Each structure stands twice: as C-alpha cells, then as structure tokens.
Amino acid sequence: MQLLRTYILPRIVQWAVVIFVGVTIIFLIPRFSPINPVDDMIGRMTAFQTMDPQAVVLMRATMQDLYGLDGSLLEQYINFWQRLLQGDLGPSFQNFPTPVNEIIAAGLPWTVGLLTTSTIMSWLLGIFVGSLVGYFQHRRWAQVLERVVIVIYPTPYVIIALILMVLFTFYWPIFPMVGGAQGKPALNWEYISSILRFGFLPALSIVIGGFAFRFIIAKALATTEIASDYVQYAELAAVPKRRIVYSYIIRNTMLPHVNDLALSLGAMFEGALITEVVFGYPGLGSKLFTAISNADYNIVMGIVLLSIVGIATGSLIVDLLYPVFDPRVRLR
Amino acid sequence: MGTIIEAVNLRAYYITNAYGVERTVQAVDDISLKIEEGEVYGIAGESGCGKSTLMRVLLNAYQPPLTVVGGDVVYTLDGERVSAAEMSDEKNRDLRWRKLSYIPQGSMHVLNPVRRIRDSFHDFISAHRDVSKAESYQLTAEYLRDLGLPEKVMRSYPHQLSGGMRQRVTIALATILWPKLIFADEPTTALDVVVQRGVIQMLKDVQQKEGSTLVLITHDIGVHANLADRIGILYAGKLVEEAETQTILNQPRHPYTRYLIESLPNLESRAELMSIPGRPPALDRPPSGCRFHERCPLAKDICKTVEPQLIKIAPKHFTACHVVEEELSHAS
Fold this sequence. Notes:
The structure holds 2 protein chains of 2 kinds. Chain A is mostly helical. Chain A has a domain at 108-295: MetI-like fold. Chain A has helices at residues 2-32, 37-46, 53-67, 73-85, 100-135, 140-152, 157-171, 189-226, 229-236, 241-252, 254-266, 273-279, 284-293, 297-325. Chain A is globular. Chain A starts with a helix and ends in a 7-residue tail after the last helix. By secondary structure, chain B is an alpha/beta fold. Chain B has one domain (3-99, 179-331): P-loop containing nucleotide triphosphate hydrolases (Rossmann fold, 3-Layer(aba) Sandwich), CATH 3.40.50. In chain B, 32% of the residues lie in helices and 26% in strands. Chain B is built from 11 helices and 12 strands. In chain B, a hairpin with a 2-residue loop joins strand 4 (66-77) and strand 5 (80-83). The two termini of chain B are 34 Å apart. Chain A binds chain B through residues 228-230, 232-234, 236-240, 243, 247-248, 251-252, 254, 325-328, 332, and chain B through 59, 61, 92-94, 96-97, 101-102, 104, 106, 108-115, 119, 123-124, 127-128, 157, 159-160.
C-alpha cells in the first residue's frame, strides 16, 4: 500500500502530465503555423477547375468542422480532446476522407513487428557480446571484435542499409528489393515466410546499427564494473568467470540497459523512418514520411501522439521496473 | 607445528612504462620472513610502506604492473610444499579460499550490491566445492550462527547492513571454507572503536576455532597488540624489525619502531605525542644505505652508504640497524 502511494502513484501522475503537455503542444503547433490546411486543400482542389462559390463556402464550412478548426482556440482545444478521447484522430488530408486511424492501423503491425524483434535482438546481442568483450578485453578475439564494431558504429545508418541492399538484392539477389509481404494475409507458411523474407534485410540493418551502439555502451559499463571491489574480490576468490560475467557484471549494469530498451521500444511508434524509406517497407515510418512531404497534419499528429504515449509509457515502465533490477531502489 | 609460509629474498616492483618513461617502484625489497602454523603474524608500518603490496605477493594474487622480480614464496599446506613461482594458474585458483583466503581492506564495497548475502556465499562456496544452492545456504546459516551473526543477514542485501556487520559478513565469507592461511588487510580501518572490538574478537574466534594462521596487516599498533603473536615492522619496502608482540611494544630496538611505538596515545601519561620528522621516502628513488637514515636522529655516516642487514639481536628478535649492531658489538 505504501509502495503504491509513495512510489507507483506519483509516477503514474507524472506519466499523465507528460502526455497532457505533449498533446497540448501538438495541438498548438500547427495552429500557430501560417498555413491554413483548409485553404490549402481548397486551393489545391480549385487549382485546375472552377467551382461554384456557393459550393466552396459550403465545403469550407464542412472541412473546418471536420478538421476541428471551428470556433475559438479554447473551443477547438476542448473539441480536440473530446475527439481524441473517443479515439478519433480526424481524416487524412491527402487520402480524404479515410480516417487517420485506419492509415495508422495499416502501418502499425508492420512497424511493431519489425522493431520489436530487431530491437530486442540487438539489445540482447549488444549487452552480451559487449559485456564479454569488456571483461575479456585482453584476449585476441575481444580486440578483433571491438575493432570491427568501432568501424561499424560511426558509419551512418543509411550507408549500412544501402550496402546491405546492394549486396543482397543486386550482387547476390537472395532477398527482395522492397519490404512487406506477398500475397493475402493468412496464417499459412507461404505468407509468413514472405514476411520473413521481405522483412529480413530491414531487420538486419536495424540489428547491426543497434548492436554496435549497445555493444559500445555495454563494453564501457563492463570496463568500469571490472574495477569495482566486488568484481575484484570475486576474482580473487576464483569465482568462475561465467558467474562473474552474468551475476556480477551484467547484473550490475542492467539499469542503464533496461532504460535504453524501454525507451527504444517506446520510440517505436515513430517508425523506423530511414529503414522504411530505404527498403520501401510499409510501416509507420514511410507513412510519416509521405505525410510530412504532403503536409498531411492529421497523420503527422496521430503518429506523434502515438509516440508521445509510447515514450511516456516506456519510461513509466522503466520507473516501475527499477526496484526489480536494483534492490537499492526498493523502499525500506 | 611447522612453517606454513616462507618468503625468501622477495622483491616485488611496480614496473610501469608510460610513453617511454620507465618507472620502477620498489615496494617490496628483499624481504625474508617465516610464518609458523597457527600463528598470528602482524605486519605494521605507515601508509605507502609496501604493506598491501607484500600481502598481495604473499597471497600470490598480483597483476601487472606489480611484478615479482626476485625471490619466492613457499607454502607448506597440509604437508605439501608449493612454490608460488612454480605454481600453475589452475593450482593457484584451486588453493584460493580452500587453503588461502583474504579479508580485504575497506569491505564496504566487496559484496555484490545486487545479490543477497546468501547468494554471494553460494558463489564463493560453489566455486570450490560441488554443492547445491540449498547446501550452500545451510552451510552459510550454520557458520553465521557459529560466529554469532543474526540469521536475517542471509536474506539481506549489502546496503541493508551496517558497516560493522558488513565487515563481519566479509570475514565470514572469507573464512567459510576454513582456510589454513588467512590474510587480513586493514580489517578494522574505517570502523568506530566499539565496532572494531567486535570485529577483532571475531577474527580471534575464527583463527582459534580451526587453528588457522592469520597474517594481519594494519598500521594500527593497537590492533596488533590485541591480536598478533609476532610483529614485523615494514619501512619503505624493507623489513626493519621483527619480534614477538610484547618485545616490539616494550623493547623496540630500531629507531623507526621506537618512533612508531612512542607515537601511540597513552591514557596514563599526558605527555605530548612524538611524531616522526620528515616523510616516508618515495620508493621509485629509495635513499641509499639505510632507507630510514634521512629521518633517523641516530644516523651515522655508515647509514648513508651501507644497507643494514637484518640480524638476530635476541631470541626471536631481529632488526636491521647499524647503530643497534654497533651497540651490540660494544657490549659483547
């Protein structure tokens, strides 16, 4: 009960406040912009054809209502929240009148599937290999591995993605050029294997990039951990090296790693923008990219909203998990 | 009762080579000593005199830059003679904790902060014995009870224990496998006097229960007076005097030892305390002749050029001082 009141509750309140402020900001930003999306839309529609002025007025009113641009700023704001709480994000401007919900829902499973697997894989791999290399830093294999990663790490992600693409779709055409899947969604091997085949390269590129980043963090953390009194003492007592790596080094560096994982998973809803564009993958990232280039505010807002909630929830989970990973955080 | 550990002309230097600048620190220089089975041998001296270095070498647990450049340490453990210089890495790991153990300096951080005490015990026990977790727990519980430590310590994390309790737990952790030879490096430093008493008593108990040999290193002559059978006085990497505790306390012969004893506070007399003039020499360029001559009030010309040898001046009483040597030869 005490734990709930003094630890869990304040963090949930904090989570709600972060989301509230975030949502308010994404409501305000487009409204301070000099471009009026309704005028913009009507301008585009009337650019190549003449329309009845009466119809234009009518259309403007309808669209103002649809876009939630009626009335004063405060009225709009209240209206905005009302719609949001009902789960209504408005229509897409570009694909009018398809609701934003539908567009996001179409991209979401692709992105979530791709990023959860590749993030978790690169996380596990990075911590494990990085910690081992940190612990055995004087061994030959560790030094070779570290040099390799040091070369990969600063390489811009786009270049890694393009190299993979050129290698595996052009020189050795093992994988298809575009992401996604073939055929109709169904629970059969054909469809599932096509998801794996089409998703392999994008996933691999994310795993490589994420691995290098996490390897360097894990190695640095392990290096400081080795100098700690308890690792030195366990070594002196000839505790097996495997036990030292797991229960002493990795276990003690878990906090920053968990933090990184939760935030990376939370940031997933922004989509893997570059990956999806490079590999033509049909996830949220490519939707966001098209929406930005077409000034499709509602979609941008929808995706940003999702990622605000995602990151806030990610850090809430980290906060709640801290006591599990470090007994010193536990309330006494 | 025979000799359990013997150092023969031991020289251990810190050899560093940073950017072509070679530096040699002669932390242990030509030390020979014999420690008998079941004895408590105290090593005393001021900070930076090579106490901890000597202990690391005696324990055969040192890493570069510390290098043994000459001499050897010979253990006689259960009738088996082992030389540190010839010992394999495996043999060394095998002897740890079962035969040789170590109670570290400043035990505040030698326990893994994210592991319960009983699991740390399990790590250390299972490294040397084929035991299940349950067996380790039982062994630990029995041992802690024997030593009068509360049972709830088992389930605690290190941060939940007081400094004194942590030090006691560490002593238990170091001696859980009943080692023949225990090294304790400043086991009571950083504890207040009341807690110190308890820790000293516990060290006595542990040592007497199994008749183990204890090598006690501390600058605190009071602790030595309480525990040690014999004391070796270390100055600037050299053994300058060695005798039974009572002799060292009441009839010290070496000028340095005399200073050391006279600098102790005494409840009966309120006389002003003596302090030794000057500072201990830097060991990368030790003074010629007797290393103490620069601070010695009795220094003669010979002290500046000729290194004094450790000579027997009474049964079990050795000292390395030209002045004492001269007095003796005049007397005889």
